[in-house]
Amino acid sequence: MLSATSAAHPLSGLGWDEDRAADFHPLAEAGLLAGRITRIDRGRCDVLLVDPETGEPTTLRADTRPVTGADTVHNPCTGDWVAVDPAARPLPALTAVLSRTTAIIRKGAHKRSEGQVLAANIDTVLIAVSLAAEPDLGRIERLLALAWESGADPLIVLTKSDVVHDGEFVRADVEAVAPGVTVLTVSAETGAGMDALRALTTGSCALIGQSGAGKSTLTNALAGTDTMTVQQVRSVDEKGRHTTTTRELVPLPGGGAIIDTPGLRGVGLFGGEGIDLAFADIDALATGCRYDDCSHRTEPACAVRKALTDGTLPERRWESYLKLQRENAFIASRTDARLRAERARHHKSRTKAARTSHRP
């Protein structure tokens, strides 16, 4: 039997390390198994773990409900490292979710303030953008903010370079809105740029982007298999169908893994630190303002206003930055209001219980 703390752990290629082994050690002594979630659907999940008898990696179907609650951000997600009770009946069950190192969290696709975790414990967020249609720079900025917020490193992948002739010009436009971020131009069909991409996907990666951006095709190319179903985009508007309907982790042949995610129609941010990193150029400009608390509106010697006037900072990018800041302020206020309401309900229930206990 192979110990979960062994240096030669079969899942080390998927990110299992000494820190996770130490985190899991008390659970291992209770007879639980460590594994990584590869897929979740309808209260069940597939967990990749080590068979205690053979010492080989295997996939186990498990119940997620024991660790699922009202707080959606902390519910199990694809990419999570978990503890599994293989003896639970009628189905093996998750008993704990280990601490995450990173997580891609967007605002839920509804009017409430909860977040939705797209992928956990990833090293790189691959932002897939199709060259078959004119890239939406504002959406790229939004995806970059989402990626930076996760704690992982973003990497922009311009796909379908085989169908365009001006890919390098488009790449220059994208690089202008992605300071400090690597931008690759690739074609999964011809293999162009794929070696460079493989060299940068050695850890755990997650693919995000719109439907039709070629995420499933990239996943298949990197994995060397036809794991993910692929459909053609609509020729009338170059928009894709939702081929991928759930998030799935696929191990890569050279080590590491990639998580393919469904196409994102809306990308609501759930936090604000990523915005500052996505717009690092504006942050750098602001350091040149005369006043530390400059609002960049009417103050004299404002470096941001000067850059807008001379064209160094495009008006479109500045408006995009302000829009994301407004959204983040709104989400923060909604989240704070929800937390205040939860505390008020908790206080009310405790007060009621105290009164009941002291009745004669």
Automatic annotation (TrEMBL):
Q: Where, subcellularly, is it found?
A: Cytoplasm
Whether Zinc counts among this entry's keywords is: yes
Name the enzyme's class: hydrolase
Q: What is its main location?
A: cytoplasm
What is the UniProt remark on how the cofactor binds and its stoichiometry?
Answer: Binds 1 zinc ion per subunit.
Name one cellular component (GO) term. cytoplasm
Give the protein family.
Answer: Belongs to the TRAFAC class YlqF/YawG GTPase family. RsgA subfamily.
> What is the protein's name according to its record?
Small ribosomal subunit biogenesis GTPase RsgA
